Amino acid sequence: MLKALVMIPLISAGIIGIFGRRWSERLIAVMGCGSVGLSLLLAVRVFFVELWARPPEQRLILEPFFSWIESGPLRVEWGFQLDALSGVYILFVTFVGFWIHVFAVGYMRGDPGYARFFAYMNLFMFMMLVLVLADNFLVMFIGWEGVGLCSYLLIGHYFDRADAARAAKKAFIVNRIGDFGFALGMILIFATFGTLRFPEVMGAIAARFPEPEALGEVGIVTAIALLLFVGATGKSAQIPLYVWLPDAMAGPTPVSALIHAATMVTAGVYMIARCSELYARSLTALSVIAVVGALTAFLAATIGLAQWNIKKVLAYSTISQLGYMFLACGVGAFSAAIFHVVTHAFFKAVLFLGAGSVIIALHHEEDMRRMGGLKRYMPLTYGAVLCGWLAIAGLPPFSGFFSKDEILWRAWASPVLPEPWGHVLWGVGFVTAILTATYMTRWIVLTFEGHERFAHSPEGHGGIAAPRESPRVMTIPLLVLAALSIGGGWMGISEAYTGGRLANWFEQFVGPALARAPVHPDRLAVVADEPGHGWEVGLAAVTALAVLVALLWARRFYRRDPLRPAPSLLENRYYVDEIYEGLFVRPLVRGATVLLWRFFDVTIIDGMVNGVAAFVAACAAVLRRLQTGLVRSYVVMFVIGALIVLGYFIFIGDRIPAR
Amino acid sequence: MGEHLLSWLTFAPTAGALLLLVARVLLAAREEAIRRLALAVSLVPLGLCGSMLVKFDPAASGPQLVERAPWIRFFGFNVDYFVGVDGVSLWLVVLSALLVPVSILISWRAIERHVLEFHVFLLLLETGVIGVFVALDMFLFFIFWEVMLVPMYFLIGIWGYERRIYAAVKFIIYTMVGSALMLAAIISLYYLNGGTTFDILAITENVRAGRLVWDAQTERWLFWGFALAFLIKVPLFPFHTWLPDAHVEAPTAGSVILAGILLKMGGYGLLRFNLPLFPRATEEFAGVLGALAVISIIYGALVSLVQPDLKKLIAYSSVSHMGFVVLGIMARTEMGMQGAIFQMLSHGIATSALFMIAGILSERRHTRLIAEFGGLAHPMPVFSALFGILALASAALPTLSGFVGEFLVLVGTYTSELAQGRVYTVLAATAMILSAAYMLWTLERVLFGEITREENRQLPDVNARERLALVPMAALVILMGVLPNPILRRTDHAVLELQRAASRTILVQRAHPAPPDRGRLAPPGAEVLERR
Question: Of A18, A249, A653, B505, which has the maximum CB count within 10 A?
């Protein structure tokens, strides 16, 4: 069953990739969406039959496939593992994936690379499912690099545009920096535990390391955890490797929605949740993750305030939201992180697809300075995007409220960090929430409200046609995802809001598959008498109120002057790209050219080789003079030689002892 | 044919070369006919390889399909014609037999002068390289080793690019320096062993059983005599500077054979000679060679990154990839050595195919400069897809062949007893980043972006003949990445034996730091001593 679920998109990708170029768009669309739809149906079936219907302790299905690499002690098998965590993932990945595929049917219409696009999208679905369902690190790594490959191919979809090609390459290389850490982490795991299979590794960790490594201690567990986390910062665009994601917006918008918002970029969060047993045994690693997550969330949100490209704002917003997820992981709230992954997939997909709808309506215009007032023309898109906006801002009862506030609360009350770090991280998250509401309101206002800043002439008079609402194949996915942006959070309503009468369903379902948060020694006493639901509700109310004020204020602020210039430091993204370029890329290329190649390789090594050759040639030239061809000189040499031999025997020869 | 399979395999190309000459002299065959005949002839060894793979028993230890006959008996010189295959050589033979027909296909239009001679040399070269891999007599090995130099010299020197003579001479002198040392080592070894046989297996067995012992200094000399020859061939930093020149100046077929097969003779030699014959010296110098391997990996990748010439870029990337081979061998773990063998095969296919890619471009545009291209994905979509797959295999993307080899080498090195093995692993793993950088940057500059030169707009995509050569390579790269086990399983036994030999020597050496005096055949009693 899992095999079929995974393989269907791969087979479809192969068929479309090979034959699709001669097919009609309709046939490609049916095949591309149909395969993902089939996977979705299988995922639903698997989810309810194999997981839902069973008691929590039986929610683990292992399905071996075939042996991959066998060498000495290394035995790696393509095997799949379904538990509550991967179950949730396959469900929302295939669901969101299916609707984005449907949206793309309309969005990509008329594109010369239609078949290629759907082949790669289906290949992506395969790789993502491999990543999620793998039962060992190495097969997960196939998916991990495989989704990176598809991301590369799809960012570079418009490959004749230099910026797209450059962005694709950058994405892959930056991800490779992360994967370097991931690969070393895997090697360390294998060297330590002798296996790469998740159940065995996690079991061995639980058995061998009953107590978490303390804060500041870097033992083997912390080393593995941090190395794997390096991989996560690449894939999930965290500090310091987030720089590829904004550039990745050069790809078609459905790609941004599916890969660079809803699914692939959350792979790092998934990996940490999958290894939660490992992470729960290193307070150092968790603290690092929490701090990196919180900083990324804040930093990306500030940059998001100052961007003009409709997709780049969303890209920084994604980075920021991913930061929240890592914050959750870092404070030990793995289930809250996954919950936010799911709600974020819904509302960020809506926002991206809404942006895509706008971009199509404006004939591939992406600069918000040339938008405005679109709600009149595109009511459905506007309505859907409003749901996404309120959800990401985190107003109750929209989905983002429940997941984000659970993260903030868990940060506040985290047992992982010593006092008062939990409160500090909560503070960063709180400020970020206000910033989020602000930049998203700016985004809405610039795009849909106020005056029209785009040129168009009334229909029938030539020139650019007025923007029109997108066709149904695009609006229906928008509305479906909008509905989930509203209601998707209700599956994880914290017990605090119902006074404990209603269980937090999501946590109850996923929680057993995840580790419990470790407790910092300082916090043992505090955790024992956990602050009650009152605090949780109170903090959530404060956040929600602050967000509401920010929304209203930002709306007035940006309506008055939508094109207000932003601080140049923010608009230029803190010059991070330039710093990386100057600090790493250019010195590397220059050093390799001038120092290693021209100087060392050509001058020194080859110079020595050629020098030896020249020396030999010179010696030969000297020796050659001896052969003059003149008999007289040969006679002279013969006499000299004979004298030397004679002299040898006369003066030295008799001193050689007889044997 | 059944009993003499390896001889047929080795000499079928020579027979084919004679056939080509006969066809020209007696039948006055035209060039097109010569090409077709050469292709047909070169498929014979490939077919025989199929038979060899069927007959090869993965579970058996020691060489298989053995043939042996006395050959030279001259003043106490006992040379046998002695051939066989084991897990180390099996796939390298297959690789050699595969790459020759591919080379003929890819040279169809590129070679217009001296067509007959070109194919004769190519086929003679095939005999030489297959002979190197199957020879089990050291002298025979050496003869094949030298024989293969001659056709290679002419391939570069006659059909190469502008500086072909320089490159050919450089290639031959580098190799000759190595060969001279190796010959000295072979002859010393022969007399140290009592001057009765050049049989590699017998001598190895004597060393293994402790019947043949020598002092540490002798072992060092012998070790380096062989090692230098092999390290130049690999090539390992700092012996690599012949490679970029040879590759850049060689015709495409020359580069294919050079990268695909000749470099592998270095790795093969280390596994066949240095590891089993000189375990103590290997133990002593493994750290140095491992360090040089790591330098090769990083240095090759960095220098590759900045090459303006596509062929030179691929050549330096070879230095980087072959560094993994040496590192894996020096780790002397099962994973490391299997990874090294796998890496040789993967590199043999992916890099050869990349040279074919470069050849296709240079054939169409008469330039190899990357800056001359750009935006080729539009006029050449199939070419671009193939280029992409091969480049990613070279960048070790999982499920493509390069990943299996490099990952095994990394794990094998990390878990080995090699001093500093862990540091080496971390440093070598940076190749993941660098290989992605140079390969993807190349793809970007050649395939993507706008078309900047008018003449690139109308470039024809790969034709049927080029597809016939390249598609199987791309398919193999994927197949090897997804299903590496059929290859790994057949190398398992040989590698396990090498590893046992290595680990036993380490134990013995720890028990007896100072071996007995030089070069004598130890009395039977010594064996017990050594083993304990």
Answer: A249
CA distance B477 to B393: 7
Give every CB contact of residue A629 below 8 A, 6+ residues apart in sequence: none
Strand partners, B64: B85
Structure tokens at A311: 């997709």
- Look up the pTM and report it: 0.92
Q: By the 8 A CB rule, do A291 and A332 touch?
A: no
How far apart (Å, rounded) are the C-alpha atoms in residues B55 and B2? 10
A153, closest residue in chain B (CA to CA): B388
Q: What pLDDT, in 10s, does the model give residues A359-376?
A: 999 988 999 999 988 989
Q: Provide, as residue numbers in chain B, all residues whose Cβ is less than 8 Å from the Cβ of A588.
A: 302, 305
Query: Could you tell me which of A41, A175, A164, A157 has the C-alpha nearest to residue A98?
Result: A41
Look at A179 and B432 and tell me if their CB atoms are within 8 Å. Answer: yes
Range of the domain at A634: 628-659
Contact A361, A401 (CB under 8 A): no
Residue from the list B305, B333, B485 with its beta carbon closest to the beta carbon of A72: B333
Nearest CA in chain B to A609: B241
Count of residues making up chain A: 659
Write out pLDDT tens, residues B84-105: 999 999 999 999 999 999 999 9
Tell me the C-alpha distance between B96 and B213, whole Å: 35
Answer yes or no: do A365 and A494 share one domain: yes
Q: How far is CA A182 from CA A80, A179, A187, B302, in A?
A: 20, 5, 9, 22
Q: What are phi and psi of B512, to 5 degrees?
A: -130, 85
On whether both A583 and A489 belong to a single domain, the answer is: no
Question: A535 and A593 in one domain?
Answer: no
What total of structural domains would you count in chain A?
A: 3
Given CB atoms, is B484 within the 8 Å cutoff of chain A? yes
- Put simply, whether B60 touches A (Cβ < 8 Å) is no
The amino acid that residue B402 corresponds to is G
- What is the DSSP annotation of B284-310? HHHHHHHHHHHHHHHHHHHHHHT-SBH
Contact (CB<8Å) B411/A592 = no
User: B440 and A601: CB-CB below 8 Å?
Assistant: no
Residues A352, A407 within the same domain = yes
Give phi and psi for A163, each to the nearest 5.
-65, -35
Q: How far apart are CA B239 and CA B296, in angstroms?
A: 10
Rounded (to 5) percent helix, strand, coil in chain A: 75, 5, 20
- Nearest CB among A73, A149, A161 relative to B397 is that of A149
In this structure, the answer to whether residues A477 and A611 fall within a common structural domain is no
Task: Examine the domain organization and report whether A516 and A557 are in the same domain.
Answer: yes
Cβ A589–B425 below 8 Å, yes or no? no
What value does the mean pLDDT of chain B take?
89
Nearest Cα residue to B264 out of B143, B354, B180, B346: B346
Q: pLDDT tens-digit profile of A277-314?
A: 999 999 999 999 999 999 999 999 999 999 999 999 99
Exposure string over A136-159, b if 16+ CB within 10 A, otherwise e: bbbbbbbbbbbbbbbbbbbbbbbb
Instruction: Output the six-digit token pair for A145.
Output: 């690099």
Of residues B174, B241, B433, nearest to A180 (C-beta): B433
At B427-475, the pLDDT tens digits run 999 999 999 999 999 999 999 999 888 888 889 999 999 999 999 999 9
Q: Which residue, B334, B311, B338, is CA-closest to B502?
A: B334
- HSE-CB at B113 with a 13 A cutoff on CA atoms is 6
Residues A310, A404 share a domain: yes
Chain A 462-501, CB below 8 Å of chain B: which residues? Answer: none
Interface list for A 300-319 with B (CB within 8 A): none
B478 touches chain A (CB under 8 A): no
